[in-house]
Structure formats: C-alpha cells, structure tokens
C-alpha cells in the first residue's frame, strides 16, 4: 500500500514534470518525505531508514522484483500501469549510486527484423528516459535492443507476441 | 577474426555431417497462367551421364533450373534418340511439341577430367544455335549444370541467366545460428559463419566476394564484413548502442548502415574499411533498412518519422527525404530492382505481412504473395525474381516469386529455421 501511494504521488509529479522542463530534484521531495515517516513507525530502524537503500532491496521490495514493461504492437509508449515500477527502480538507483541497470528492449516476431531492432531500442530508450527524468544518473543506465532475436516466448500466437513486446531491466553485479 | 577462423575449422568437420542429412531437394514449382508464352524445350538425356559424380542427373538439374525461371516448359524426350554430333530429326521433335532441343554427351578423358559437349537447336527453324565443348572435374556437376542452363537461357531469352548466382541466408538450428552460402536454388549450402548468438541482415558486396552482416556475438549488434574466400573479417561498425542494417554502395566503396550512437536509429555512411563515418539522416524517429539506388545517388529506407513505418528515399548528398509509401500503417524493408524502376517491400495488409511491389514511375502497387508472414525480400540480379523469407508451420522457410507473380517456389531443402535471405550478384 505504502508503495502505491508513493507511486501515485510521484506519478503526479512525473506527469507535471513532463509538461515542463524536467527539473526532477524538486519533485523528489515527495518520496523523500515518505521515508522518515516509515522509519518513525519502526523505532529500531538500523540505518538511514530508506528501504530502497537496503543492499538487498532488489529482493525485498515487491515493485523492484517486477522488471518487465510490456508494450502494444508497433508502440514504444509505456502504458501507465508500469509507471510505478519504473518509479520504484528510479528510487533504488538513486539510493544506490553504484548500481547499474541494463535495459533490453524486445519486440514480437512479426514484421521486419531491422525495424524491430530499432523499435526495441526505442522501447529501451523510453524506459531509460523515464528513469533519468526521475533523477537517475545517465551513467547508471544503458539501453540496448535485442529486437525480435531473443524471444522469451517461442510460440507464434498472440500470447507469445504479447509476452515478447517487452523491455526488461537487468541488474549487473 | 579468431572466432571466425575457428568457426570455419569446426565447420569443416561438421558440415559433412550437417549437410548430409537434408540432402533431398524437393523444389515444388507453382506456375500460374496458361504458359502460352513459355518456351517448349526438350533437354534430352546426355550420353554417359554417369561420368559425373553423385546421384542427381546433370540433365535433371538443367531442366529444373530452366523450369524455375518460369520461362520454359519441359517437353519429354519420349522414345526419340538424341545422339550428340548427329543432325536431329527436327520434324519428329517438333511433332512432340518442342521449339528447342538440347543434346549432349559426357566422357571421361585420360587426365581424369570429364569432357562435355552440348548443342542447342532451334527446332522450328531447323538450325543449330549453340555448340559448346568444355572440360570439367567430375565433382563439378552442379556448377556445370548451372553453366549450361545459363547458356541456354541467354541464347533463347536474350538476357543473362541467374543459375550460377549464389544466395546467402541465416539458419537457426537449436540455439545456434549459421550464415550459409548456397547455389541460387538453395543447394550446395556451405557455412560461412557459426555463432551461438543471432546473425542478421547479411548482404553481398557488389563483386560477390564479401558479405556484410550483423552479429550479436558480443551481446549487442555489431556490423562485420567477411571475405568469403579467406574467412577474414573486419569490424565495420562497433559504436555505442546498436550497429545494424548494412547496405553496399553500387561501387562497393561505401556502406550505409543504421547506428544509435547519437540517440535514435539513424542512417550513416561509412567507407568499406570502416573509416570516414558520416551521418545521412536527421529525423525525430526511426530511420533504418537503407538500400542504395543503382546509380548511387539516393538511399531508400524505412522511417516512422510520420507516425508509422513507411518507405522513404533520401539524397546521398544532403539526406533530404521524400515519402514513397502511403497506403497502410506498416510498410518496411524497401529493396530496389537492379534497373532502379521497381521497389519491393513488406506491407501489413489486414494483419498479414506480404511482399508488395511498386512501380516507381506510376506509384502503382501490387501485392505479390498470399502468405502472411513475409520478410526480407531480395531481388535476383536479373530483376525478374524475388527471394524472401516466410513462415510455414511455425518454421522459417525461403520462397521465390517472380515479379509478374506467375512463378512461385519454395526452397524447402533445409531442416532448420531459415531467414534473412539475400541474393548475390551475377558471377564475374
């Protein structure tokens, strides 16, 4: 519940940011303000209290375990359902300056392989630009495309195509 | 380069095994229309065909070549004798319906080679059109058959034949990928590269000696140029982001390609040795799949700058672009005919991806195929035939359609999943 509230707050901030120049630091105050409140509820909090700064946050926070964004055919627009996931990852990356993420864009198998390679890049770039808009450092994010070359679902039907129109966030070591 | 060499060495051992399995060639040719304008021809069995090695008959390959062109109708020899060097009984051949006749013989000579003699006759005009003698190695049967078919085609059709040209394509077997180079009919496939990662967009240099392609072997798309005779290769483009869609200029000195080094996928031009990179297009969308016009002055490409992927043409000098396709919301992969007059591309029609042809002068379009998963069209160097990839039963296959839409056949002699075909130039 906590996360979805934060997400809603930041979604509003993000949409506001979209309409003007991206001055992310101002908007960041919303989630930062939420963190001390969470810490206050737990008197025995060990360190700073930001759950996203936890070394094991990627395994602990449900939204951070969601690492796939799905797209419509021939589209690179991120559906609004996924904004909260991207927002959670932006918080993790900002709280862990040493963390790096690789974003792999994929497409379904239909149509041109080369166009799909470019489309997969656009999908990866869309995720990347949303992360940097939220204040993640450019140097922490790399966007690449696998086009239709590495399908996760190997079928040739709508179910497989839906699964493959996807961008994945892959954390390195 | 080491990886490539290694692949060659490995494949030298593997290829016999791999290629031995799907040896049976079953080319089913579909020919539409009455066929009244196809030339009725008899290719008589040659004397001593067993002089050549292998099971297929030399004359069987010649007949199949000519049939695949869609320009000939085979007339059976029946019981008529055909002895090379003797004047044929023209009236008898004409009585069986043939307008042209080919008679030949083979014989082993003392130095282990095979002497080949053949003659082409005009049965209606009762004259000899062609007489040829040559000496070949006994294991060169396919090359010999394609050579003879070319001679017949050139004499009777008046244009160069494509029977000695080669094609390249990518085959996926399990999780391995190989770039194969084969005869125009898909036979004689020889691996040129083996990789555990995808291979894309192979394309021949204009002299047929090199192939540029995209490989994911370093976990991202990088463009390489391989020299077929030596197996050596260079990295043409390995910039930040994606490197893909190579296309040779008609003089072979430059390539166009797609890079994302400056953000979006855009088209660049680079010298064939990788030097002198310059950006060609500057749009706010995807620009990819470049192909040079035969005169080298413009580049056809796919762009979604207008909101959906469409075909455009840009000047090589300044990158100024003009949109060419307007019908439908998905038109990709432009390929220009050798004479520069006809464009083919893949269009999505009611959810079906099909090969479409546009006459550039009139802008009239025509859908050439009735399959629904067509990709990667490639013109034969004579401009009459288009090779493309499609899908049958969940497996990639290669198909051929003539530009008049009347001749179609499938190259179904591979067991694996094949894609990304590209037709090489006329042999030099």
Automatic annotation (TrEMBL), chain A:
Residues 1-24 form the signal peptide. Keywords: Cell cycle, Cell division, Cell outer membrane, Lipoprotein, Membrane, Palmitate, Signal. Its main location: membrane. Pfam families: OmpA (PF00691). SUPFAM superfamilies: OmpA-like (SSF103088). It is found in: Cell outer membrane. CDD domains: OmpA_C-like. The keyword Hydrolase does not apply. Belongs to the Pal lipoprotein family. Part of the Tol-Pal system, which plays a role in outer membrane invagination during cell division and is important for maintaining outer membrane integrity. This is Peptidoglycan-associated lipoprotein. It comes from Uliginosibacterium paludis. The lineage of its organism: Bacteria, Pseudomonadati, Pseudomonadota, Betaproteobacteria, Rhodocyclales. The gene is pal.
From TrEMBL, chain B:
PROSITE patterns: PROKAR_LIPOPROTEIN. Keywords: Cell cycle, Cell division, Periplasm, Signal. It is found in: Periplasm. Residues 1-25 form the signal peptide. Residues 27-128 form the TolB N-terminal domain. InterPro entries: 6-blade_b-propeller_TolB-like, Tol-Pal_TolB, TolB_N, WD40. Its main location: periplasm. It comes from the Bacteria. Part of the Tol-Pal system, which plays a role in outer membrane invagination during cell division and is important for maintaining outer membrane integrity. Belongs to the TolB family. The Tol-Pal system is composed of five core proteins: the inner membrane proteins TolA, TolQ and TolR, the periplasmic protein TolB and the outer membrane protein Pal. They form a network linking the inner and outer membranes and the peptidoglycan layer. This is Tol-Pal system protein TolB. It comes from Uliginosibacterium paludis. The lineage of its organism: Bacteria, Pseudomonadati, Pseudomonadota, Betaproteobacteria, Rhodocyclales. The gene is tolB.
């Amino acid at each position: 519940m906590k996360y979805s509230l934060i997400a809603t707050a930041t979604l509003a901030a993000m949409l506001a940011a979209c309409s003007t120049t991206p001055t992310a630091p101002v908007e960041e105050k919303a989630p930062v303000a939420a963190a001390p409140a969470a810490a206050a509820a737990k008197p025995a909090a060990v360190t700073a209290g930001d759950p996203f700064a936890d070394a094991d946050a990627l395994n602990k926070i449900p939204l951070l375990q969601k690492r796939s964004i799905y797209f419509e055919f021939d589209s690179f627009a991120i559906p609004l359902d996924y904004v909260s996931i991207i927002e959670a990852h932006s918080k993790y990356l900002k709280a862990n300056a040493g963390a790096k993420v690789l974003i792999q864009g994929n497409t379904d198998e239909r149509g041109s392989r080369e166009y799909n390679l470019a489309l997969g890049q656009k999908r990866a770039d869309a995720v990347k630009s949303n992360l940097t808009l939220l204040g993640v450092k450019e140097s922490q994010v790399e966007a690449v495309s696998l086009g239709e070359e590495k399908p996760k679902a190997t079928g040739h039907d709508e179910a497989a195509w839906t699964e493959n129109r996807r961008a994945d966030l892959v954390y390195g070591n | 380069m080491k990886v490539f060499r290694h692949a060659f060495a490995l494949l030298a051992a593997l290829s016999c095994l791999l290629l031995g399995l799907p040896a049976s060639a079953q080319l089913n040719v579909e020919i539409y229309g009455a066929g009244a304008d196809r030339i009725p021809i008899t290719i008589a069995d040659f004397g001593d065909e067993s002089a050549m090695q292998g099971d297929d008959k030399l004359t069987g390959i010649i007949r199949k070549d000519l049939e695949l062109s869609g320009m000939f109708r085979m007339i059976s020899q029946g019981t008529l004798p055909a002895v090379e060097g003797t004047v044929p009984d023209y009236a008898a051949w004409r009585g069986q319906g043939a307008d042209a006749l080919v008679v030949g013989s083979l014989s082993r000579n003392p130095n282990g080679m095979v002497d080949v003699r053949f003659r082409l006759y005009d049965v209606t005009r009762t004259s000899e059109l062609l007489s040829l003698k040559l000496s070949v190695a006994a294991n060169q049967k396919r090359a010999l058959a394609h050579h003879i078919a070319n001679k017949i085609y050139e004499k009777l059709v008046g244009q160069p034949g494509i029977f000695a040209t080669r094609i390249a394509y990518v085959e996926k077997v399990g999780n391995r990928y190989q770039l194969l180079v084969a005869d125009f009919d898909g036979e004689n496939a020889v691996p040129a590269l083996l990789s555990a990662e995808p291979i894309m967009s192979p394309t021949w240099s204009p002299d047929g000696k090199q192939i540029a392609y995209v490989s994911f072997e370093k976990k991202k798309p990088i463009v390489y140029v391989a020299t077929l005779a030596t197996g050596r290769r260079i990295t043409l483009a390995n910039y930040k982001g994606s490197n893909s869609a190579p296309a040779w200029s008609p003089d072979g000195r430059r390539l166009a390609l797609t890079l994302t080094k400056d953000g979006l996928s855009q088209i660049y031009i680079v010298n064939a040795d990788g030097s002198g990179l310059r950006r060609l297009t500057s749009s706010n969308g995807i620009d990819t799949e470049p192909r040079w016009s035969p005169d080298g002055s413009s580049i056809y490409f796919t762009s979604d700058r207008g909101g959906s992927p469409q075909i455009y043409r840009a000047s090589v000098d300044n990158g100024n672009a003009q949109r060419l396709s307007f019908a439908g919301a998905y038109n990709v992969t432009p390929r220009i005919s050798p004479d520069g007059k006809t464009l083919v591309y893949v269009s999505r029609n009611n959810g079906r991806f099909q090969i479409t042809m546009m006459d550039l002068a009139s802008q009239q379009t025509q859908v050439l195929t009735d399959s629904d998963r067509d990709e990667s069209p490639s013109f034969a160097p004579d401009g009459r035939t288009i090779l493309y990839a499609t899908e049958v039963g969940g497996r990639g296959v290669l198909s051929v359609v003539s530009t008049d839409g009347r001749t179609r056949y499938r190259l179904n002699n591979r067991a694996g999943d094949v894609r990304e075909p590209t037709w090489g130039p006329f042999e030099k």
